[in-house]
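Summary of Year 1 activities. Much of the first year was spent building the evaluation harness for sequence design. The harness presents a backbone, in tokenized form, and records the residue chosen at every position. We chose the following record to illustrate the format because it has been used consistently in internal testing since the harness was completed.
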């Protein structure tokens, strides 16, 4: 009996940190059920299938992102999909929050004001042609930076020209907003600010600074 064989990685769909209807009226229950239960689940299932096919074991999703160029498109697309959506759910909340503390100071230093930050983030989100994500990251120079990536790419990927540690990401695939906003991506971006969990984003910022200190 083979006992030295490593346990193959098996990623799982993380539960939503709120109920699917909790983000209404900003994002509808049906959108959340399909987006989390169908789309994200499919990324997880296809990622697991691709990793098993490649006999990859003991690998974290962050490690996959960092060296994604070594893998095929199935792992890039579905690994990115799993990472991006796992982050997305964690940074959404039905509670009203605002930027505060060190992150607020950093936003004001880099973008002059929260309003200007939101304006530039919206430009990145609406300017991403087709499917993709808009991001706020801590870049390799430890500055806040806004950018976007196509498809399920993200700023952790070695193949991405836009790099950094993701603090906040907005899914601008049509599946994220079409039932609620149809083709009006700009309205979806505007409503996003009502459901951002700034506590989580702040924690990610402070953790990232500590890890690079
Ligand atoms: Mn999505």
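For this record, the design step produced the sequence shown next.
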């Amino acid at each position: 009996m083979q006992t030295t064989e490593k346990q193959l990685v098996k990623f799982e769909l993380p539960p939503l940190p709120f109920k699917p209807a909790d983000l209404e009226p900003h994002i509808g229950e049906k959108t959340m059920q399909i987006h989390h239960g169908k789309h994200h689940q499919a990324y997880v299932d296809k990622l697991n299938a691709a990793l098993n096919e490649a006999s990859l074991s003991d690998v974290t999703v962050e490690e996959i992102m960092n060296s994604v160029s070594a893998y095929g498109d199935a792992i890039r697309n579905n690994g990115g999909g799993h990472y991006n959506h796992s982050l997305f759910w964690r940074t959404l909340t039905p509670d009203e929050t605002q930027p505060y503390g060190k992150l607020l100071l950093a936003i004001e230093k880099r973008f002059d004001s929260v309003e200007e930050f939101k304006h530039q983030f919206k430009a990145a989100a609406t300017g991403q042609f087709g499917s993709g994500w808009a991001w706020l990251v801590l870049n390799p120079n430890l500055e806040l930076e806004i950018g976007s990536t196509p498809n399920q790419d993200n700023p952790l990927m070695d193949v991405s020209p836009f790099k950094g540690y993701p603090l906040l990401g907005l899914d601008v695939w049509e599946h994220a907003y079409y039932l609620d906003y149809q083709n009006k991506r700009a309205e979806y971006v505007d409503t996003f600010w009502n459901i951002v969990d700034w506590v989580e984003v702040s924690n990610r910022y402070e953790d990232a600074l500590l890890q690079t200190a």
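Strands lie at 132-138, 144-150, 165-171. Quantitative recovery figures across the full test set are reported in Table 2.
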